[in-house]
């Protein structure tokens, strides 16, 4: 043991010191990350609270969120920026911002889907009906979280194209989908009825829902 210590003792001490320094650095980094995460969360709450009340969020806080390391905060900041832009009346810029979010593969799909729905909703009157249908096709599917909104806009686009039978079928599917908000289902049921399609739930549909 004495021989081993005489030969390698200094290197053992160096290894221990380096290990302790590395461990201390990790502890500092972990604490700093949690602190920054907490500060970022507070900024996110402030920004989203301002946007929800119709007030313009603090530009500096919004910029911090857009550059945050957490993808969720970045996506929320970008969506907030686009929403505030739309509220200010700059629809063209808002559509472009939503389009950039929808096309950004670094952003999680749920945020991109939301951006797609909002983009189409803002530009619906200026878009060709077929373009509306093609853009929303992945979302206008029963069971998709955005089926209500995407399906409704798709059905209206079909009506504009004179395809009332297809539109009626889409409205009926929305009306029978229990996962769609009640207000949207009620509106879809009325539209399906006007188009001559029965959108009432059968006993089998109700049991399967």
Automatic annotation (TrEMBL):
Keywords: Cell membrane, Chaperone, Membrane, Transmembrane, Transmembrane helix. InterPro entries: SecYEG/CpoB_TPR, YfgM. Residues 5-173 form the Ancillary SecYEG translocon subunit/Cell division coordinator CpoB TPR domain. It is found in: Cell membrane; Membrane. The chain crosses the membrane at residues 12-29. Its main location: membrane. GO terms for molecular function: protein-containing complex binding. It comes from the Bacteria. One of its GO terms (cellular component) is plasma membrane. It is a single-pass membrane protein. PANTHER family: ANCILLARY SECYEG TRANSLOCON SUBUNIT, UPF0070 PROTEIN YFGM. This is Tetratricopeptide repeat protein.
